[in-house]
Amino acid sequence: MNVCESCCKFLSCRRGVLILITLAAWGMFVASIIAEHVFNLLPCSMCMYQRYMHFAIGALGLMIYHIPHRVSVLIVSMAFLGSAGLAGYHVGIEHGVFPAPKSCGQAMKADSIEDLRAKLLNRPTVRCDKPAWTLGGISMAGYNFLASLGLSALGFLSYRRQKFSLSQEEK
Fold it and tell me: Which of 2, 52, 82, 84 could form a disulfide with 148 if both were Cys (CB 3.0 to 4.6 A apart)?
């Protein structure tokens, strides 16, 4: 069995692809936590939205694992496509294509001037338009965009492959 046949066989396995995509979502979520708490890369509000998205996709993958239909892969793939859209928007903000939302580096509530002063002095401002880290000119949001788009494509290919396999069995 060559590599191409192995890939086609894997893409025809709904549970294998769903496990891979779900583990990738949890891996991306854990990587963001490690980046914050180990490497001290503080997230902006857009980064937090992307983190919530990975958590939701991971939880969704766990919840629909036992659905005995190929549509479960399609659902998770569509969620990753949404994650890619959010990450792409964040990359656009970083490159000045889109304006940063008001929640980026702002949105702080306080009961008094003293309370506001204490919060401002103790909290670093994290802006959405300034990447905290890059590798090869690509920010974490950029890598998130590429990974999310790739995982979404993998899921859609698997869905398509499973559809093709089912139609071949009927003949």
Answer: 84
Would the pTM count as exceeding 0.70? yes
- Phi and psi (nearest 5°) for 136? 65, 30
Distance CA 29, CA 50 (A): 9
Contact between 132 and 126 (Cβ < 8 Å): yes
User: Which is higher by pLDDT, 91 or 9?
Assistant: 91
Handedness of CA 42, 141, 32, 48 (dihedral sign): positive
Cα 58 to Cα 3, 8, 29, 125, 168, distances in angstroms: 28, 24, 9, 29, 32
Strand stretches in the chain, DSSP E: 134-135, 138-139
Return the pLDDT at 164.
57
The 10s digit of each residue's pLDDT in 91-138 is: 999 999 999 888 776 555 667 778 767 766 676 778 889 898 999 999
Distance CA 12, CA 102 (A): 44
